[in-house]
Amino acid sequence: MKLKQIKDLFQSELKELYEVEEIDHFFFMLTEFYLSVNRLQLALNPEIIVTNEKNELFKEALKSFKNYLPIQYIIGETEFFGLPFKVNSSVLIPRPETEELVEWILKRQVTNKNQLRILDIGTGSGCIAISLAKNLPNAKVYALDISNDALKIAIKNAQLNHVNIEFIKANILNSNAWNSEFKNLKFDIIVSNPPYVRELEKEHMKSNVLDNEPHLALFVDDENPLKFYKAITQYAVDNLSTHGDLFFEINEYLGSQMIQLLKNYNFNDIELKQDIFKKDRMIKGTKKG
User: Fold this and answer.
1) Do 23 and 87 fall into the same domain?
2) Residue ranges making up the domain that contains 242
């Protein structure tokens, strides 16, 4: 089958589900991944023939798109902060907003030549921890998650990006167990992107996220939406070094509550930061001296 015919098939079968530009984007991501053929190469050579084996891959992908499976899960990888990451349905697909959180942390540390200790809580694919480790080579980075399947992916991603990270399986809400894991270490940075989508917000989510990405990493009870933030902040009070920083990615609707939470635990220099979409998405607090 010719590659041009497969492209036409994608457009005809998916036109009721996706925009034309989006279908083209998906298709050319697949041609790059499966065939190392880009948009220009196909335009210059529309007669490219696809082998039966590769043709089956495109057919399977087409079925997956009809079920709204994200392209990142279909090809099993994505890019975050300029680095490659393996992903599957055990981990959230890293978002551009989280890249902004990493960039913020790095800017805070640009003049710091010390060996930092960093803890990433709820690491998922490992995208935050690995990106920080890659850009702060003197740092000692620890990453925690409750999911064995997520940790398997994170470990693969650390190996893929040639960084050394100590991964720990633990429950975010059981901070009493952390001291035994870390032997009462003091951290210079604690960062977390915990579950923060309230159940009441499900109806506003796209089906490709709602039906495919892990709910364990996404959702929190409507009645207690800050429970993960409270547990982590309590832990940070005792386990951040003096003048250490606590960073969170947050629910855009709960910025004022997060400011109050950090104030209640006597954090200084609290900053609420918007993402590229002008939504309250990140917050930082510094431990008092």
Assistant:
1) no
2) 81-287
